[in-house]
Amino acid sequence: MNPWVIVVVAIIVGGLAYSYWRQFSYSMVASACCVMVFGIEILASSHGDPTWSATFIDIAFSPQDILHLDRMSTVVTSMYAHAGIYHILFNVICLAFIGTIFEQRIGPRPFIIIYLFAGLCGTLVFAGLRWNDSHVLVVGASGAIFGVLGGFARMYPYERMSLMLLPPMHAWVVVAIFVMIQIALVFGNTNIAWEAHIGGLLGGMLIAPYVARLPLHRRVKRMISMNALRKLANTPELKAMLRRIEVEEIADVRSAWIEQFLSKARCPHCGAPIKISRESVMCARGHLL
Question: Which CATH number describes the domain made up of 3-212?
Answer without folding.
Answer: 1.20.1540.10
